[in-house]
């Protein structure tokens, strides 16, 4: 395929909002209230962490929106970091997306889809004799292999769908999002108005174990909340395919994030009104239960089937939205000789199909590598490094490009972006302390980008292509 083809600007504001929300609402809205309850032992503090997570996410989104309005292009932060910092840092970010952030997000979402599907229909285990086989005592690729194989098949199918064109993928996300909204609002309405609900319990700040809530526990709980909010920045990856991107990206991010914050507060208050903290702690300890299913069962005896289907639909939509958006960064990198060259081509539908394939293969490998919570904690540790870097870019670009037209300026400057940067530093340090294994694996995968950068650079030199001055580190 020719490398001179250009991406098609086909997304308006409505589809931008759909992609933003579709990338956010996934498994976290159903699962993450349980680990938060296990950390905090207080329903009121769980809701506080959802609010804090939403506020910090919004601060990051508003800061990102200013930069997106100024520098909108395909690749999102990869394109922004070339202007804010240098190509080396931009490459490390793009490589981190490939090795950890976006591919692990695809893997974990597909994993929850597969778990929900298996809860609806009993499928015999595959290769049970290899379930205890491990790599270094850390990775168990054949444990729950039937679930993992289902997740892999989903990734393969959705990758194929997205090779047919951007509007095909976005259209599927729109249809799924309508069903998800309907299902979530049914849970909120019937759950909150049922005789089993006690809304006052949702706001109780007392802990069930009579111990005070610690700073570290709040940060650990917020890792779960941030997984549920994760994904809003993915709209920047398709910046080159958005109409009037410098206006529609900031507007779409803001509308999408505010919508999700409201939905999350309503649905989690409903869960907490239906299930006391000890019940949520039991759900978390069980490992194979989902909080939303247990909450719905408390007021609707046969509701487990309904919520399982809803989780299927939601994770299908979020997996699709993540696959749709993420591969565009690798396409942008490949066009500059900083990724595998085949990823630089477009197919007949003007879609970076080879980039989708590379993404698909590594996401399938990650499905075999770990559990859902391992993957999500690793993602949040990695992604907040770059959320902080993007927000710091607001200050840098105000100095570098003071007179450049900005369709949107971050509200509350300089306080809002400063709070976001400080929070990212605190979360980075706390995650190393409370989740050292996940932080270590995430850091190792990101740092593999250093030798890969030099390998791509040598390949450029062999082709006798000129190296831009800013690529020299």
Could you characterize the architecture of this molecule?
The chain crosses the membrane at residues 12-30, 42-62, 88-113, 133-158, 170-193, 213-240, 252-274, 305-331, 351-372, 378-398, 410-433, 439-456. The protein is mostly helical. It has one domain (13-468): Amino acid/polyamine transporter I. It is 70% helix and 0% strand. It has helices spanning 13-24, 28-31, 33-40, 43-71, 77-84, 87-120, 145-162, 166-192, 215-229, 245-274, 277-286, 291-299, 303-335, 353-369, 372-400, 415-434, 436-447, 449-462. The radius of gyration is 22 Å and the shape is globular.
How do the helices and strands line up, and which of them pair or pack?
Blueprint: H1 13-24, H2 28-31, H3 33-40, H4 43-71, H5 77-84, H6 87-120, H7 145-162, H8 166-192, H9 215-229, H10 245-274, H11 277-286, H12 291-299, H13 303-335, H14 353-369, H15 372-400, H16 415-434, H17 436-447, H18 449-462
Helix pairs in contact: 1-8, 1-10, 1-13, 3-4, 3-9, 3-11, 4-9, 4-10, 4-15, 4-16, 5-6, 5-15, 6-7, 6-13, 6-14, 6-15, 6-17, 7-13, 7-14, 8-10, 8-13, 9-15, 9-16, 10-12, 12-13, 13-14, 15-16, 15-17, 16-17
Which short descriptors sum up this protein?
Amino acid/polyamine transporter I; mainly alpha; 0% strand; 473 residues; 18 helices
Judging from the principal axes of the Cα atoms, what is the shape?
globular
Number of helices: 18
CATH top level assignment = Mainly Alpha
Instruction: Report the CATH topology name.
Output: Amino acid/polyamine transporter I
Question: Low-confidence segments, ≥5 residues, pLDDT <50?
Answer: none
The CATH H-level homologous superfamily: Amino acid/polyamine transporter I
Helix/strand order, N-terminal first: HHHHHHHHHHHHHHHHHH
InterPro entries: AA/rel_permease1, AminoAcid_Transporter
GO molecular function: L-amino acid transmembrane transporter activity
Keywords: Membrane, Transmembrane, Transmembrane helix
Organism: Rufibacter glacialis
